[in-house]
Design a protein that fits this description.
This protein is an alpha+beta fold. It has one domain. Helix content is about 20%, strand content about 50%. It is built from 2 helices and 5 strands; from the N terminus they run E-E-E-E-E-H-H. A hairpin with a 2-residue loop joins strand 1 and strand 2. It is globular and about 30 Å long.
């Protein structure tokens, strides 16, 4: 089972799932995007952005089946 935490993102209650030491991805939000927290090793800080399913598959090599 994946480790998870609850988070609030601009009024959306989301559950974030740990995909790796530096990557957390939420359930799909009502705007059809996923909230992603990733650690940027160049800046040495956590970055929070939203991505579509296609972007997550391409950028992070995470299958869409895992996101469901």
């Amino acid at each position: 089972m994946l480790e998870s935490i609850k988070d609030n993102y601009y009024g959306f209650d989301v559950r974030m799932y740990r995909m790796g030491d530096h990557l957390w991805i939420s359930n799909v939000m009502p705007n059809a995007q996923y909230l992603v927290n990733q650690f940027n090793y160049n800046k040495m800080m956590w970055m929070q952005t939203t991505y579509t399913t296609d972007e997550i598959e391409e950028l992070f090599n995470v299958s869409s089946h895992v996101l469901k």
